[in-house]
């Protein structure tokens, strides 16, 4: 895949990493970056994530063959819908948002003919923010979910798959709702749990938080606004997963209460088996 | 601090790291290791964690000026009590168990006069097991809790503090019950939560478990037998902390239910503040 002009809206950790990977791998001839502040564009230029920085999103999108929106999930729908009328015919728009159903629903209803949108979510990233943490290998061997609905153009879907493949990612095509249900369990629930754990630590016990506590709560350092928007958009699925988690935790608690150490050991062994299968 | 003969009972990750640190830092002239299998002693010799490996715990302890028990918490009390009659007058016994109240209570009632015991818990380690993961710097700048009760000999307490300081660790002296309550929150509760999360992942969603899920569930890869014993010994404190955690999680859930995004954002911001203060 060779893109003449790739526009990245939002040059943070994910946007910056897309720019670095695209340039390193020759996926794009020219990479335009869009930011709200000149300083972040300057930083993206310095680390080599983009070739040119623009403050005007419509200007930048009008030049794009492919545009990727890497902004917070609560800004993506209106940004893509707003950009539609400025796009070249045949332009492909996608995003890197952590939720898909709401975004896909909003965007599909809003784009003009001849401008294509396919939802994406690269399952990569960290609790860190900003282009300073961008990494050309961020997507290497990671999974990117690409969404398909009955409105998805087949050719646009293939281009989107090729795009992420070209950045080093594995790709799976999913219905947006199925994506949201999956990440509610594997990403949004852990975030909620990590935040509840971290929030329960009084300052006088900070000294007792060793690697176990640090690992378990690491994602709670993520940006509160970003995560509030994610949890708001995926509220129903997160609530369902919270309910399942509660049942599992209650089972474990009742084993402690009745001192059923055999059952507890079995449950911990099952959890270890699952975790071991994931690797480090 | 210079120990003529240091005996380490259990040459796994912690025991092996104590041996490496003691030899590297010149804390002990001679390090004896005790294991149940010749193969693990051989491994400890090969990595340089011990000078000599013995299968007979009483023989090894009879030669010790200081002996550290790094075995599972459900074996420590009887091992120390059983070793008591074989110790030299003035010998100092300590342990590295993750719980303290039960162990200290059992051991203090069992030792002969002239043999001293002080409980310890270095807040270091990982989900990994075995001497192959031993690290001479494991205790560097980490916290070790050393316990004091009304039966603790002041001189033995000072020697125990000096021992851990000499291995690179910071030391805090705590009542065994206070220790257990603190680690119930900072270590045992996270383990239970991580296990519940890991256990809830169906195999078909394994591919969706990215770094957030992996971090949050990493400790669930810990040994089930070790952890069942820890949770059994600290059951009451863990149940108390589980109850507090449940209340925090229920608060968070109700914010999702009533769509109070301002409150949710505030809660996530507070959790981030706590987590940021811990560092990476």
Short note summarizing the structure:
2 copies of one chain form a homodimer. By secondary structure, chain A is an alpha/beta fold. Chain A has helices at residues 13-24, 38-47, 57-62, 76-83, 101-108, 154-166, 176-199, 211-217, 224-233, 235-257, 261-278, and strands spanning 3-9, 28-34, 52-54, 66-69, 92-95, 116-117, 120-122, 143-147, 170-174.
Give an overview of the whole structure:
The structure is a homodimer of 280-residue chains. Chain A has 280 residues and is an alpha/beta fold. The first copy, chain A, contains 11 helices and 9 strands. Chain A has helices spanning 13-24, 38-47, 57-62, 76-83, 101-108, 154-166, 176-199, 211-217, 224-233, 235-257, 261-278; strands at residues 3-9, 28-34, 52-54, 66-69, 92-95, 116-117, 120-122, 143-147, 170-174. A 6-stranded parallel β-sheet of chain A has the order 3-2-1-4-5-6, with helices on both faces. A 3-stranded mixed β-sheet of chain A has the order 7-8-9. In chain A, helix 4 runs parallel beside helix 5 and helix 7 packs across helix 10. The longest helix of chain A has 24 residues, at 176-199. Chain A is globular and about 65 Å long. The model of chain A has no long low-confidence stretch (mean pLDDT 96). Chains A and B meet through helix 7, helix 8, helix 9, helix 10 and helix 11 of A and helix 7, helix 8, helix 9, helix 10 and helix 11 of B.
């Amino acid at each position: 895949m060779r893109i003449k002009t790739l526009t990245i809206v939002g040059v943070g950790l994910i946007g910056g990493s897309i720019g670095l990977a695209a340039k390193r791998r020759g996926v794009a001839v020219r990479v335009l970056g869009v930011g709200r502040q000149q300083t972040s564009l300057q930083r993206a230029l310095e680390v080599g994530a983009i070739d040119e920085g623009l403050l005007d999103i419509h200007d930048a999108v009008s030049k794009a063959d492919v545009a990727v929106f890497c902004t917070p999930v609560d800004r993506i729908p209106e940004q893509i819908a707003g950009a539609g009328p400025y796009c070249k015919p045949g332009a492909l728009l996608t995003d890197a948002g952590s939720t898909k159903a709401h975004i896909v629903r909003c965007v599909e209803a809003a784009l003009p003919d001849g401008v294509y949108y396919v939802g994406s979510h690269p399952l990569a990233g960290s609790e860190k923010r900003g282009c300073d943490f961008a990494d050309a290998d961020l997507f290497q061997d990671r999974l990117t979910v690409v969404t398909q609905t009955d409105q998805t153009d087949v050719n646009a879907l293939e281009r989107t798959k090729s795009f992420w493949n070209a950045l080093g990612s594995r790709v799976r095509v999913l219905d947006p709702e199925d994506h949201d249900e999956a990440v509610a369990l594997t990403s949004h629930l852990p975030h909620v749990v990590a935040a509840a754990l971290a929030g329960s630590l009084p300052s006088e016990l900070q000294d007792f938080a060793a690697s176990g506590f640090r690992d378990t709560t690491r994602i709670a350092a993520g940006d509160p606004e970003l995560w509030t928007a994610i949890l708001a958009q995926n509220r129903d699925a997160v609530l369902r997963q919270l309910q399942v988690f509660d049942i599992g935790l209650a089972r474990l608690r009742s084993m402690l209460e009745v001192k059923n150490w055999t059952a507890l050991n079995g449950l911990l062994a099952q959890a270890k088996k699952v975790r071991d299968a994931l690797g480090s």
